[in-house]
Amino acid sequence: MTSTASPEHHHLSPRRHRHHRRLALTGSIIGAVIVALDGTVLTVAQPTLQRDLHASFVQVQWTSTGYLIAVASLLVFAGRLGDRYGHQQVFALGILGFGAASAGIGLAPGVDWVIGLRIAQGIFGALLQPATLGMLRATYPPDRLGMPIALRTSAIGLAAAAGPVIGGALTAHLGWRAVFFLNVAPALVIGVLALLVRIPTPRGGATPTRLDLPGAGLLAVALVCLVHTLVGIPDTGWTVGTALGFLAMTAAGIAFVRHERRTADPLLPPDVLGSPTVAAALAILLAASASLFGTLFIGTYFLQNVLALDPFQSALRVLPLAVMMVLSAPASAVLQRRYGPRRTTATAMTLLPLGVLLLSLPSFLPGLGRSSTPATTVAISGGFLLLGAGFGTVMVTATAVIVRHASAAHAGVAGGLQQTAMNIGPTLGVAMATMLVSLGAATGATLLVLAAVAAIGAPLAAGLPGRGER
Questions:
Q1: What are residue 292's phi and psi, to 5 degrees?
Q2: Whole-angstrom Cα distance, residue 348 to residue 331?
Q3: How confident is the model at residue 225 (pLDDT cuts 50, 70, 90)?
Q4: Quick one: which of 340, 430, 330, 337 has its CA closest to 389?
Q5: What is the number of other CB atoms lying within 10 angstroms of the CB of residue 407?
Q6: Crossing angle of helices 411-438/57-85, nearest 10°?
Q7: Distance between CA atoms of 232 and 241, rounded to whole angstroms?
Q8: What is the pLDDT of residues 60-84, one digit of tens each?
Q9: pLDDT class for 364, splitting at 50, 70, 90?
Q10: What is the pTM of this model?
């Protein structure tokens, strides 16, 4: 591990240290919130966008799919750019580009322009997201990262909860274009500040002699194949094209690993690629996010199609999830310092399957599954409460482990891996839930499988550091 301070910082007063950390934290939170808010408000605006632009359903889906493919395939390489050229500079480019693309979408004359600009937005989002973690790693000592990451996670949870409300209000009164203009002003302000106000950061070591462009290309191909295939499963099911997509992903992944082992300047440094601790934390995030978003997909279907609740009533049942995410994040930072990441994460990964199992009860008990009775409401709201508490905690502890375990010189790559897991996990969970339903599995059985996916994370927590360990 690198030291918690560097000679570059020794001449700074404690007050300047605090000032720089607050600036880095503010930028990190605003950047993460802009991305989270953009995704949630878009979902609400898509039906109106489709009508106004006379777009097909497939075209509207590509406004989300194109963004997801672009961002997921470039996150790790974008993190590497931050490690080499500076996280603050890459953050400024990412957030300004993200805001400019948002403005362009708000002015787009047709759906093809929207799709193209959403892909551009994904590229800038890939630059932005790892940098929000890289800036924190560069300005905070490793043992003080828990609370900044917790505050960032709480802000993401709050944005996810507020997004549908804000998006619905803007779309209803000002039209779908207002949803995209929402990001422009804060992105412009924080981007200009990031360019003008330099935050001194410790140097994490020698920079690589060159960027690993072949490795970045191979990883991008593997991730594009994976994400595109997973996104297509809900519409097409398991087809020959699906199998070919996974085959291409596997071939590109194998080629990437072989290349990384042989090149002098790998995209994924050995202390990151070969770290059991980082691998365990990434697997936990993948399992937790897949279980959560798969459950949300099935749960929303059950609430609206089985219990016949309208969208607002359904949102009220899900509200405990967002509330507990916001509250559990700062609490988990305290628990992590007291009990260590291992025990904190293991406990949180126990709450996740318990929450999914509680949500499955109405499917197995006829008295609960026929209508929205008080007992049904308690089971559903209680299940989402446990999911929020578990997921909010896991987000903080696993992310802190990934960012802390990597050296400051590789913080961007670590942040890129964390963001990649957080982008692929939800896609995997929804694809898994859709596949099970298409194969005839009942709601309860599908939720049991998703609970099993979450339960995998509990034993994986054994690979995380204990109290006082790094």
A1: -65, -50
A2: 12
A3: very high
A4: 330
A5: 19
A6: 160
A7: 9
A8: 888 888 899 999 999 999 999 988 8
A9: confident
A10: 0.85
